Amino acid sequence: MRTMALAGFAALAAFAAAPASARAQAQDADHFSWHGVLARGKTLEISGIAGSIRVEAYAGSEAQVTAVKRGPADDRAEVRILTEQDDDGVTICATYGSGGSCHRGSNRSHVHDNEASVEFVARVPAGVAFAGSMVSGDVEVTGLGARVEVSSVSGDVAVRNVHGDVAAHSVSGRATLEGVDGQQVDANTVSGDVEFGGPVHQGGRYAFRSVSGDLTLHVDGALNARVSLNTVSGEIESDFPITLAGGGRFGRRNLDFTVGNGDARIELGSVSGDFHLRRAGAAGR
Fold first, then answer.
1. 21 φ, ψ to 5°?
2. 248-261, pLDDT tens digit by residue?
3. Is 274 or 15 the better-scoring residue by pLDDT?
4. 3-state secondary structure the chain
């Protein structure tokens, strides 16, 4: 029997939990639903092993989560969906086998030849942060107005039209960030490409890394940043003038340069992938 311990994300700042009366959940053999009031600054976390997570913004005051189990009946019967409430918000996990547990930042399951999957759909109110992780499956978040953290081992991760800081990680999938407006943005993969679209803010910190994937940035508006690039065999293309003077450094594997007045900080790294700095909306890009 094989044990999987899924690492989650660090909790945000502590705050008072919503009353239990504001929360409700229902579950039958193959369907799960939960809804409850989450105050601004709290976090909704969803953790799965196989399946998908899809998240969208919601204009109401309650967060809503539904899930559907897929796969052979015997395998579906071994999957439980657990909910835990703490001072930081609510964590919902799909656990496999007996003895599984669900805690913020940790989903512990015992998986042995189980082909069941769980498809999660969440609707998140304004100001509520989200953290989602999947071992085998995609994670997609759209339209939120708070911090987003997503990860997958073998699936793609996508964050679109989010106003807030973002952390996105995948091992073999792509990391796609479109319309992301944050002061701190981090995305990395091992073999997948990384793509970012959005503004680069004064004083912001941005880091994009991959082992073998390409890194592409589509920058909205002006780009004023100090850029550190690390590579072994990758090439760089830029729509923006690159200045090496005033402390800029070029080496076989490292390139430090300034674009504009250098207010923000951008770190780029790929062993064999290429680098593309683009102006958003540029023709043919």
1. -65, -20
2. 445 457 889 999 98
3. 274
4. CEEEEEECCCCCCCCCCCCHHHEEEEECCCEEEEEEECCCCCEEEEEEEEEEEEEEEECCCEEEEEEEEECCHHHHHCEEEEEEEECCEEEEEEEECCCCEEECCEEEEEECCCCCEEEEEEEEECCCEEEEEEEEEEEEEECCCCCEEEEECCCCEEEECCECCEEEEECCCCEEEECCECCEEEEEECCCCEEEEEECCCCCEEEEEECCCCEEEEEECCCCEEEEEEECCCCEEECCCCECCCCCEECCCEEEEEECCCCEEEEEEECCCCEEEEECCCCCC
Q: What is the pTM of this model?
A: 0.87
CA-CA distance, 134 to 7, in Å (whole number)?
A: 10
Q: Give burial (CB, 10 Å; 0-12/13-18/19+) of 220.
A: middle
Tokens for 143, please give them.
């339209």
